[in-house]
Design brief:
This protein has 11 helices and no strands. The chain has about 200 residues and is an all-alpha fold. The chain is elongated.
């Protein structure tokens, strides 16, 4: 274990180690210990927010991202992640606002364009969503998830060949991610079919 200049730094390190090993609840405990000693480090709040997100506690994740932003108003990653949490909670305008801020702070953040594309698609702004996915893959040419997301929107717009091309590119770049997203999409469609038939 490396040497640390403070106990807060040590707990932060232990939190990162537990997070990387998949122990997200353990990571939260260590990050909290670090915060109790030094409440001025935005990175520790951000990391604890990510850990809360991993266990599905979106409200606590949002609170930690907000605290990180309060301590560092130019924390693009915190704006991005808070935007994603708001999107998943159905606060689409709040998500757009946060993702816009992330992009203003860091115009090369491909993840923020991809996330904003998802929100815009959900709001029915499919052409604007395509523009965001285009930006995401222009910045990061191996961004499999953005290709996958763009494929879905192209399919919705009737661009069958474009959708196939993007889907194939996503599979070439990250077949595991595509398999997981396909499975989730299939389950969502089955759930919708069951609801329609039994309501």
């Amino acid at each position: 274990m490396p040497k640390f200049s403070s106990a807060a730094e040590r707990y932060h390190y232990l939190g990162n180690s537990k997070y990387q090993s998949g122990d997200h609840r353990g990571a939260i405990i260590e990050y909290t210990k670090s915060i109790q000693i030094n409440s001025k480090n935005p990175v520790v709040y951000y990391n604890r927010g990510v850990s809360y997100s991993e266990i599905g506690n979106k409200q606590n994740a949002i609170m930690d991202y907000s605290k990180a932003i309060l301590l560092n108003p130019n924390y693009a990653l915190a704006f991005n992640n808070r935007g994603i949490e708001k999107y998943e909670l159905g606060d689409y305008q709040g998500a757009i606002d946060d993702l816009n801020k992330a992009i203003i702070i860091n115009p090369n953040m491909s993840e923020a364009y991809d996330s904003r594309g998802l929100v815009r698609n959900k709001l029915g702004d499919k052409n604007l969503a395509i523009n965001d996915f285009n930006m995401a893959v222009n910045i990061k040419t191996n961004f499999a998830e953005a290709y996958y997301n763009r494929a879905i929107v192209k399919s919705d717009l009737g661009d069958r060949q474009g959708a196939i091309d993007d889907y194939c590119q996503a599979r070439r770049l990250d077949s595991d991610m595509v398999f997981k997203k396909d499975k989730k999409l299939l389950l969502e469609k089955l759930f919708n079919i069951l609801n329609t038939n039994f309501l």
